[in-house]
Amino acid sequence: MSIQEQIKEVVTTHRVVLFMKGTKQFPQCGFSSRAVQILQAAGCEDFVTVNVLENEAVRQGIKEYSNWPTIPQLYINGEFMGGSDIMMEMFEAGELQEALKA
């Protein structure tokens, strides 16, 4: 299975997936930490995290999969939402909470 197929399987198998540096319990960059805090503030506790620092192929592959150059990356119901800045904008507008309810 190619790295793209593996990524697709993860984002379509789980409702909410955050590709990040580190883990939900131990984020290893400020943007990843902020993304976790935003999801928790939006009331989402059941999200899955993928630590891109554990696998270079995933770290590069997710950027190609989404055509987005930075990490973290949030997926809800298989759809790419954006990174931490976009997550914050969506949260402040109430859009993230709506997407998480859907």
TrEMBL record:
Keywords: 2Fe-2S, Iron, Iron-sulfur, Metal-binding, Redox-active center. Gene3D superfamilies: Glutaredoxin. Residues 16-80 form the Glutaredoxin domain. CDD domains: GRX_PICOT_like. [2Fe-2S] cluster binds at C29. The keyword S-adenosyl-L-methionine does not apply. It comes from the Bacteria. PROSITE patterns: GLUTAREDOXIN_2. Pfam families: Glutaredoxin. One of its GO terms (molecular function) is metal ion binding. PANTHER family: GLUTAREDOXIN FAMILY MEMBER, MONOTHIOL GLUTAREDOXIN-S14, CHLOROPLASTIC. NCBIfam families: Grx4 family monothiol glutaredoxin. Belongs to the glutaredoxin family. Monothiol subfamily. This is Glutaredoxin. It comes from Neisseria dentiae.
